[in-house]
């Protein structure tokens, strides 16, 4: 999700009623497209290209691993596979064009592609968040109700969840952007598209509130509550196991239990920390900016937008590299062993 280049707060009275570039328009355009010296341009390009590379190849590694190895064909991993596909498409289709727009402060790809870009941008970002929430629900049943988990969380059920995670954001995103309802009532919006050759995307007051609550606050609150419950139940299970092992005077098993508990707590902390760090700033800005007359500095909003993108960069690190099966699968991929006969039957546990 991206925000308008906030020059429109200074150009509300600039309407493209005449096809003439006035000196004032030229000055504004130049000030927008040339904000940094070349060395800064290069540094930002290198950093953002690195983020895109990690996003694309990290998530591609997860896609290939889960698709190829039969041992990984489980309901939970299918959710992770779907989320990895979402983040992969974000890295391939959205982030490169957004990088050019962010660095050059200009949109070179035309008005029609601007709409398509934003529609897919919004859709994939929301899909990624919905997947994070769905994975939290899956882990909740696995930890808190393990006896009924295989019955409730089946492959057929996960396919329905994945369909919802993709279809609802798609309908929402394309519906909002195509109808232009997200910019209804914003004076000067079209002038930035037509006169300044930009792709200025923003939300009015109504849609900023809807976006904040529907796409961040509600899913985020569900995730926080679920992971707190998971942590509490994990602690309870660890304490019970500790008492059992103490009665059996098995200090080794007790130590292993403590290590697993610390690892689980650390993983949950990283999951929530990364999600909140990446998404909260940009969604709060989306919420308050229309009520502040779009006064948020353009560079700040752009940086927060990329912080949200970076959540897709971190996802393969969190849900992939934290699992031993992914590290083993990655070695198979890197060394070309997946092309060997019966490699799909390899033991990754």
TrEMBL record:
Alphabetized SMART domains for the sequence: 7TM_GPCR_Srsx
GO molecular function: trace-amine receptor activity
Subcellular localization(s) per the UniProt record: Cell membrane
Entry keyword Cytoplasm: no
Main localization category: membrane
Gene3D superfamilies: Rhodopsin 7-helix transmembrane proteins
Family: Belongs to the G-protein coupled receptor 1 family.
Matching PANTHER family: HISTAMINE RECEPTOR-RELATED G-PROTEIN COUPLED RECEPTOR (PTHR24249), TRACE AMINE-ASSOCIATED RECEPTOR 2 (PTHR24249:SF413)
Name of the featured protein: G-protein coupled receptors family 1 profile domain-containing protein
């Amino acid at each position: 999700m991206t925000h308008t280049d906030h020059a429109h707060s200074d150009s509300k009275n600039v309407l493209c009623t005449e096809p003439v570039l006035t000196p004032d328009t030229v000055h504004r355009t130049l000030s927008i497209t040339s904000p940094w010296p070349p060395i800064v341009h290069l540094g930002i390009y290198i950093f953002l290209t690195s983020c895109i590379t990690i996003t694309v190849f990290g998530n591609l590694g997860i896609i290939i691993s889960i698709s190829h190895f039969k041992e990984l064909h489980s309901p939970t991993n299918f959710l992770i596979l779907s989320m990895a596909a979402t983040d992969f498409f974000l890295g391939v289709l959205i982030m490169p064009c957004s990088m050019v727009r962010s660095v050059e402060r200009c949109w070179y790809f035309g008005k029609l592609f601007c709409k398509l870009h934003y529609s897919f941008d919004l859709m994939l970002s929301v899909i990624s968040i919905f997947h994070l929430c769905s994975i939290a629900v899956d882990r909740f049943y696995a930890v808190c109700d393990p006896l009924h988990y295989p019955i409730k969380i089946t492959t057929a059920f996960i396919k329905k969840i994945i369909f919802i995670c993709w279809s609802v954001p798609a309908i929402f995103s394309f519906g909002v952007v195509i109808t232009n309802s997200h910019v209804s009532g914003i004076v000067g919006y079209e002038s930035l598209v037509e006169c300044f050759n930009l792709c200025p995307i923003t939300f009015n007051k109504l849609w900023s509130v809807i976006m904040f609550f529907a796409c961040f606050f509600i899913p985020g609150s569900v995730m926080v509550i679920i992971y707190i419950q998971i942590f509490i139940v994990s602690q309870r299970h660890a304490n019970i196991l500790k008492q059992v092992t103490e009665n059996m005077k098995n200090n080794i098993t007790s130590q292993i239990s403590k290590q697993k508990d610390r690892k689980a707590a650390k993983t949950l902390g990283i999951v929530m920390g990364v999600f909140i760090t990446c998404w909260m700033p940009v969604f709060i800005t989306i919420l308050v900016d229309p009520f502040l007359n779009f006064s948020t500095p353009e560079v700040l909003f752009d940086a927060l937008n990329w912080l949200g993108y970076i959540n897709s960069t971190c996802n393969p690190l969190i849900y992939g590299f934290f699992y031993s099966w992914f590290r083993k699968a990655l070695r198979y991929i890197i060394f070309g062993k997946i092309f060997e006969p019966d490699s799909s039957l390899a033991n990754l546990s």
